[in-house]
Design brief:
- Helix content is about 30%, strand content about 30%.
- Helix 2 packs across helix 3 (about 85-95).
- The protein has 7 helices and 9 strands; from the N terminus they run βααββαβαβααβαβββ.
- Strands 1, 2, 3, 4, 5, 6, 7, 8 and 9 form a 9-stranded mixed β-sheet that branches.
- A hairpin with a 5-residue loop joins strand 2 (about 50-55) and strand 3 (about 60-70).
- The protein starts with a strand and ends with a strand.
- The chain binds coenzyme A (COA).
- InterPro entries: Acyl_CoA_acyltransferase.
Length: about 240
Amino acid sequence: MALKIERTDARTWPDEQMKELFSEGFPEFITADRLVKDYLGRVREYFADLNLMLVDESGVPVASGWGVPIRWDGTADALPSGYTQSLARAVEGREQGVEADTLVVCGAIVTPSLKGRGLAGEVITALCRAAGEAGLARVVAPVRPTTKARYPLTPIETFMAWKREDGMSLDPWIRTHQRLGAEILAAAPVSQTMTGTVAEWERWSGMAFPASGDYVIPDGLSLLTVDRSADQGVYREPNVWMRHR
Ligand SMILES: CC(C)(COP(=O)(O)OP(=O)(O)OC[C@H]1O[C@@H](n2cnc3c(N)ncnc32)[C@H](O)[C@@H]1OP(=O)(O)O)[C@@H](O)C(=O)NCCC(=O)NCCS
């Protein structure tokens, strides 16, 4: 299959093709991080050169990935707390004239029928190339480990250290990054914070939350904490910081 990289803003993609691309990827609550909503519009506007689409020979988008540029001194302590703070640092940095030196890969998705064939790796490689062209010397990613949802009770610090017999991570998405030469840098226990009313969480999860307390939710990498008296549910999404070479 001959695939081509294009900027996502190079053309308008038909709705049904985008629907297919994103049809199996993220749980509904992924968009419930209120801070992200403050930044996403400006991210799309300022950093369109770092938002790429992998397109097949008939022009259908089959994978996508995007990132933001930040300034970072290379130490784990100075990393953003995760995904959301990366967006904030990138947008505020741009508005304050801070010169960025690091690409943060923020997301990648592969169309369901073509998963497991290395397309995400192609997208990340293209992003790393775009980073080089944009003068960004380093590449990091707050990785959302896809199998963490099966271990919602396990702290991310523990989970990220789990390996298979061959020494690779137990998690397939971390493995994809490792195969491209990336290493685990640090845990990002609160990469994002999703909040909603009890009714919203019931809709997003397809569950009922009759009492206050902690719940395992479908596709949740950690637990949802429900407080019925405040009519609020809070979920903190853990990620793993990885650095590409
Ligand atoms: C995570 C994701 C981007 C990986 O893309 P990909 O191109 O399938 O990645 P790879 O081909 O490198 O495969 C990665 C692993 O997926 C596993 N895999 C194989 N077939 C799969 C399938 N049909 N569905 C899911 N995972 C599959 C494989 O185990 C592989 O790991 P291994 O080869 O070390 O065993 C893709 O699964 C996806 O779009 N997921 C939904 C969105 C998401 O979670 N994005 C990441 C957070 S931003």
